[in-house]
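Q: I'm teaching a short session on how sequence maps to structure, and I want students to see two examples side by side rather than one. Could you give me a first protein with its sequence written out and its structure tokens following it? Keep the formatting plain so it prints cleanly on a handout.
A: Of course. Example one:
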Amino acid sequence: MSWTARSIPDQSGRTAVVTGANSGVGQVTARELARRGARVVLACRSEQRGAAALDRLRSQVPEARAELRLLDLADLSSVREFAHALPFDRLDLLVNNAGLAAVPYARTADGFEMQFGVNHLGHFALTGLLLERLLAAGGARVVTVAGMAHVLSNIDMSDLAGERRYRPLIAYASSKTANLLFVRELSHRVLSKGLDLTVAAAHPGYARTELQTKGARLAGQPGRERMLRLAGDVAGSSPDQGATPVLYAATAPYVQNDAFFGPRLMGVRGGPGRAWRAPWARNDLAAGQLWKVSERLTGVVYPGL
């Protein structure tokens, strides 16, 4: 029988942070963790949308212990403020889920290309700022939501700002490669120090969420937006199905460092299984280089690593 959200072990006594928990896969992830007893922090950029998501969660899981905290991954000062204000001495689970896909060119508050800044640098900074609390928990996990789109592009270390040539989909794919390189390097560093922390990645396949259509909407391309929505209706899975590999990486027993999970059926649908990654997403040299660049750009240095 395939692993489903009903397979999640009891999460009582555990505290989880889920970024981008206001919709889609993030919302389902937060809901199912709360359903199994975890105390869940919904880390969202929009207070209005986050509050609406929290209300939905509480209506679906009346016994939930959940709260909303504002986090804008496109602004490193917001990331620092969120981490500083989080009122827990230990953290059992961090799900780096929030992201943008194929949006028009823009820059973050700190001047980074928006997709690289939000999808990778924001989460790199957040994880580093919460690392001591994750290590204090014992047996904690960090799960980063990557994507099969990484197969479309390696990361260009010489043009992280996308200034020479910006193609929205390729920039998104590069940011997903960055996610996997981050997971690889953090895993190696954790293992080399013998630390009790599991670092893994997951992707939802082609889930019917606003992530798939937001870029076209922001670009003012209603025809493309309709086409993407139709593709999701025909070939995509529900957010509940898309969240399953993420929940598996976050809660299933025996998950190993640097594991990557996704839907079993051609990486698009089905129960969770091991996901394939492109050779450039397994490049240890590139992972180390990206780590050093990320430290320099964010100013966040991981304590003890």
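Q: Perfect. Now a second example for contrast.
A: Example two:
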Amino acid sequence: MPLTFTRREQHASYRCADCVAEQPPFDATFALADYRAPLDTLAVGLKFRAQLMLAREFSRRLARLAQDTWQETSDCPDVIAPVPLADRRLRERGYNQAWQIARALARSLKVPADPTLVRRVIDTVPQSRLDLDARRLNVGRAFQLAGRVEGLHVGIVDDVMTTGATLEALARTLKAAGARRVTNFVALRTPKN
């Protein structure tokens, strides 16, 4: 059932078939629901219609989902950061929807948020126009760190996870710089295996 809360036992060790077949570079992903009607309109409203109150609701539910799942307080990230937008896209839109979710999530989890931890250094074409392999190539070198992450558990926030290519590229960048763990927090994800 979309946007409901489930207990720890149901989430503790679940892995989709894709992650079982090929271990992704990130360590975990929390997602509230599948990206499908009618919830897809919420993501569109946040991303393109500046319905920013949705970010607070997504973050509140993500915090609860994560806290219900974690076994120890140390499971909580050391820092939360959004998937960065390209400068041009940020100027056009006027806000980063991932940052809107991330800062509220960080407050709920009582951890620092850093909107500038990761920078998008390549203005990529929108991922929605590409297949999985093209998405991976598109964002493969698009990110650069602006801060230190060595030994940290980094939480990355995005509104929608489609193929996971963007989050994989970010996780690779973070792990190459010494991040101990990378956990994704996404409002909605495209249904997978």
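Q: What should students look for in example two?
A: Point them to this: Residues 25-189 form a domain with the Rossmann fold fold (CATH 3.40.50). Also worth mentioning: The two ends are 16 Å apart (CA to CA).
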